[in-house]
Here is the input.
Amino acid sequence: MKILDVPRSGSYAGVTSSHNRAGQYVRNRRTPTNTPTARRTTIRSAFGAASSGWSSLTDAQRAAWQAAADAHPITDALGQSIKLTGHQLYVSVNTQLVQVGSSPVATPPSDFSVFDLTGSTGTFSVAGGCVLALNGAGGDDDFVLISFSKPLPAGRSSSPTYSQQSVVSGSTTAETITTATYAAIFGTPVAGQKVFVKLTPVSQYGVTGVPLVLAITVT
Here is the structure.
């Protein structure tokens, strides 16, 4: 149900608040299916390990993370500039590092800049799979997280959920995900459907940049 209210996002009791291009709305809260996939298990493990690692830091190290968080605010889902806690920044950085195959770190990033994926494009055919042309703006030690939506009707303009399929170097300029690999998670798409691909840049220091979402019509 569309409402006129202050911007808010999240669930309370049996109601979930969110927003789209039409404005703020509320709906009945739904219980997630929470299907345990290999990828979800990996990410949850990385998140849990990062969260637990905070307690093993020294007071000086925790203070350094807090100072870094204060100096580098982020933009949240509502478009507001917010400051993370030192713990939140530590978990964010180390979760990303672990899931891309790097070792966790005890000190904050020395550089918070992240490369831009603007200009990257993609196609998706049932026969050839998803072929991505990335701009290669990152370095060899940086990363691009490649995530997909399930096949959606052609009229859809966005996807609420994504599943991470692979991780490639930030300097990558071409990557192909076969239809069989995609179908193992979502099933085989058909011509005319739309698949959204989210490309997320991550620096070698574990700092996450602004994702680029591609809306691709399957041929």
Q: What stands out?
A: The CA atoms of residues 7 and 78 lie 7 Å apart. Helices lie at 38-53, 59-71, 86-99, 179-186. Residues 38-99 form one domain.
